[in-house]
Design goal:
Length: 339
């Protein structure tokens, strides 16, 4: 059986190839894709050639084993349906709607043990956000927002908006979104931010709170993907505050100014990454608990409202180009798959 698969042959060169797919092997299921979502963060690093070539595609996902060298296949958000079972697979997976951490392809053979059934009350378009919602849940575990805090979120792409939507469910004093794109600032307000600013405004850090004597944030999330934003995030953080860095900058260095106020402010810089659980949460949290929490947050947030573009997978090159060159027009690109 043939399938369509997205391949990055070189930086900014994407093709959709037709190839044979064998029957599922022992312990595998065959999945027919209905939709897949493009990550405007991680995937664009690979698309632009900005990912470290000696780094594995992913350290935890079996479908993304191997070095980040071209030609490569990337992606980790596919919604589909199980259409076949390999030898040794039993249970009720046949015919189930499922989520797969797998590169963009119309069909795939996937380990049955790694399949995530989509809950009956979750639409496929909402389910596409499971990976990014799991990231947003991890950001909350790392940042630990607490009662009455002032919080700022730099970057209102999909992960930033999901983080904003989760933070809006906390009893915060102030929740501020920061993004240079007007449309994203508008969406952040609908997601629950109290205010949204353009980081290029000279007084943006000082406007993170309406009270001039409490202008600094207790907690800042840097989710823009831009190394230059990290200094601005630090500048917005008050004495003893936390800056959670969820962005992956790839090969681009972040030139930090740590010689000024930062040195005396006891600000903590926290790296957040979804491949692992925070050490201080690992005794109580598991991957399964985090996934279940992500499903529940998807039910509450209904993130399919963040989808701005749907297109057949055959137009994958157009989708990546749109995200790369016209970010002001797009938020979430989704590929669709016919029979």
């Amino acid at each position: 059986m043939k399938r369509a698969a997205v391949v990055m042959q070189a930086p900014r060169r994407v093709v959709v190839c037709r190839e044979e797919l064998p029957p599922p092997g022992p312990g595998e299921v065959a999945v027919r894709s209905s939709l897949s979502a493009v990550s405007a963060g991680t995937e664009l690093l690979f698309y632009r050639g900005e990912a470290p070539p000696d780094l594995p595609l992913d350290g935890k996902l079996p479908a993304l084993i191997g070095p980040a060298r071209y030609p490569l296949r990337y992606g980790y958000a596919v919604a589909g349906r199980v259409i076949g079972l390999g030898p040794g697979v039993t249970g009720d997976l046949a015919g189930r709607r499922v989520f797969c951490f797998h590169p963009h392809a119309s069909r795939m053979n996937f380990a049955a043990a790694d399949i995530l059934p989509i809950p009956e009350d979750v639409d496929d378009r909402d389910a596409l956000f499971l990976a990014n919602m799991e990231t947003a849940v991890t950001l909350m575990l790392d940042g630990r927002p607490t009662l009455g805090e002032a919080v700022a979120v730099f970057g209102q792409g999909v992960v930033g908006l999901l983080a904003t939507a989760l933070l809006a469910r906390h009893p915060l004093k102030r929740l501020v979104a920061v993004d240079p794109i007007p449309r994203r600032r508008e969406i952040s307000l609908s997601a629950g931010a109290h205010a949204a600013f353009d980081p290029r405004q000279a007084d943006a850090p000082g406007r993170l709170s309406p009270d001039s004597d409490e202008a600094m944030a207790d907690l800042v999330f840097e989710l823009s993907g831009e190394p230059s934003a990290l200094n601005a995030a630090i500048a917005a953080c008050g004495f003893g505050g936390r800056v959670v860095i969820g962005s992956w900058y790839g090969t681009r260095p972040a030139a930090l100014d740590l010689g000024g106020r930062f040195h005396r402010s006891r600000i903590r810089l926290i790296s957040s990454q979804v491949s692992t659980l925070p050490a201080d949460a690992a005794a109580r949290w598991s991957k399964a608990r985090r996934i279940e929490t992500a499903w529940e947050m998807i039910r509450r947030v209904r993130p399919s409202r963040f989808i701005t573009h749907e297109m057949p997978v055959e137009r994958a090159a157009e989708g990546y180009d749109l995200l790369d060159r016209r970010p002001e027009e797009v938020l979430q690109v989704v590929f669709t798959y016919g029979e």
